[in-house]
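FORM 7B - TANDEM STRUCTURE REPORT

SECTION 1: FIRST PROTEIN
SEQUENCE AND TOKENS:
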Amino acid sequence: MWAINSPQVREQILSYQTGTTRKRISRKNLEKVQIGLPPLAEQHRIAEAIDGYLSRVDSATSNLSLAQHRTDRLASLLLGKAASGGFSEPVEEIDQVDISAIEQLSRSRAVGRWKPVSPIEVKGYSLPPNWTMASLGTLSHASGYGTSTKCDYGAEGQPVLRIPNVQSGTIDLSDVKHAIDTEIDLTKFFLEPGDVLFVRTNGSPRLIGRVGVVDRSLPYAFASYLIRFRLTPGAVEPRWVELVTQSPLWRRTIEQYAASSAGQYNLSADTLSQLPIPLPPLEVQRKTLEAVDVALTGARRLASATTDAETRATHIRSAILARAFTGTLVPQNSAEEPASTLLQRIRAEQEARRKDKVKRKPARRSQIPATAQSYELLALYSSNLPHKIIAQQEFDV
């Protein structure tokens, strides 16, 4: 088991795999995989050493996962507090946000027909004084799905962002595929500052509705698994939309409205456009975002350290297995029987059994004596089967 999971054997398996979208390996190719075989006694020492080392790695990884869970929980509580006005002072002296003015702005920027969208209710939420509520669709002058063109690493078409590129409220460009079709024009899917990308489909409901805010112009398209909302400038801070939609009450609402089909959870642009966004004045949004950034500094630092530690744990696991199957993890003993001798003996025993099987001829049924014991077994067997089946097979039995 450990050998198959070692880097040396994993490389062989990767070289034999086939398929594009879903990788696979056939039994025939799996039989070609070569596994280094030390003496049997050394195998026991290696397995025991691996179990000891990796049990400590697993224990550390479990603690890291617990720390990550607590960090995520803390961040979620802080976002919920911010969305409910817990980070802002009363602003009675500042006028409420004018929804009709925002509607006019969105309509003036829209290409084609545009109309405001009524917000749905978020159960358990109370709007703070002097705040107002508007739907995400009303705060945007455009929205839509991405491109469905096929993409791959090393392709020469235009770059296309996917679900893995939407991380922690930002756009991560470290893992990008390109369109296979070099002739297709994807410029209409390029991103502008203030665009908000939502993950619309995933096998985990926790990842549905994950948000990435675009902070600069990007000549990158986005895939159909994402939905873009182009917020109207001056209507709302894009990061405020991210903060609100990732807070606990909104996450619960998003997961509630996600449709499930064939093990996948899906959100539509129409559903997301109805999400309510509580709106304090823009000045309050900015001050709240600054306060949340300060409060989350420690949590984000801990989350980053936890991620780094988990990466190191993965490398340690790989290094342990690599040493185990290059003969450097445990001491070797030259007095032990070599594995080659063991294999020769096994082959000789297998060949002897094969020859002995060929020599022996099976007895004919007429030569098998019927005994009282065999009739007793037949009676016991027939008690659990239909009589007709027994009648047909009893003499063969």
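SECTION 2: SECOND PROTEIN
SEQUENCE AND TOKENS:
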Amino acid sequence: SGSAPVHRRFRRHAEPEILRAAATVRAKFPKTRKNTAGYALDHFLDTRQLLDLFIGSEGTLGIVTEVDLTLDPRPACVSSILVALPTLDALQPAVEAVRTFDPAAIEFLDSSYLRIAEYDAFATEQWAGALLIDFEGDGEQVGATAQDAAGAAGGFGITTRVANTPDEREQLWALRHAASPVLSRLPDTRRSLQIIEDGCVPPAQLGTYITAVHAIADDLHVPIVAFGHAGDGHLHVNALADITDPRCVATLGELLHQGTRLAIELGGTPSGEHGDGRLRTGGVADLYGPEILRLFHHTKTAFDPAGILNPGVIITEDADPVLADLKVGTEATVIPDDVAGALRAVERSGNWGVSRLELPDASPPP
């Protein structure tokens, strides 16, 4: 009985408005390979299925109680290649060269990442970045495809390496995880914070985006570490903020503001795959404009007329600063030392599956 009224409200009130604004929706939504900002009105126009609005709505339209999944079988054969880049100018042609071989993944590691990586299989000091690329299939031709792709990308790289066996692949992909130990050992005065870590631009703009993000961070004197998914034009950025600086939160707010504006100016989105949350909700209006925002409000009201589902996410009327609830900074809420220590241990270990409600009981006595 609960779903029928929602269905009817949406079909009667929100859907006609969305259909009338179809041309605006098509024009305003970014032409990126990934986009989780706002509600997926563009996908809804393609399918007219409410499920496409619900997916990625971050608990603002309803609660998922059960999911049926169909899993694809694991590929029988996987090969990988490494392409070391001499400059960022080589990034896009190298990606386009390997894309013609239908790779399963194209990961990018920025020079800022390589500088802190604890990895001695290669001397990476002169690399402007590196690509790690996977090819999957059911036969031995996968290895030949990887070899051909390495040859095609080799004209743009300092070095290329092909890995066909599990041990060889593990050695290459160890580079992808080699910075984590360093980030986990940051002193208590410095934290790795994901402030602009989800920007996605058209792949041809990725090199421009990376260069400009570094320029913004340098101007604000905030060290960053960047990596991402080159095939999608998607970049993750960790800001290594000095939390003892009294201007820390204000500086991070400026980093967020400029990073959001940059992604939009390049035809991208500030929310590639992780959604808006509360951090990026303020950028939704900047990305889409008032007409699309009005359609988001209609959609939200149809599903949640009382406004009780995850308020402040995707749509907000809150005038408080976007970083008001940041866990660091001089204005951050003080929490007991034992809980703070347990939370820091979770960050350092990457054990994000631990329930925060269990931390007080799990914390050692002072």
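SECTION 3: OBSERVATIONS ON SECOND PROTEIN
The chain is about 40% helix and 15% strand.
Residues 94 and 231 are 10 Å apart (CA to CA).

SECTION 4: SIGNATURE
Preparer initials: ____
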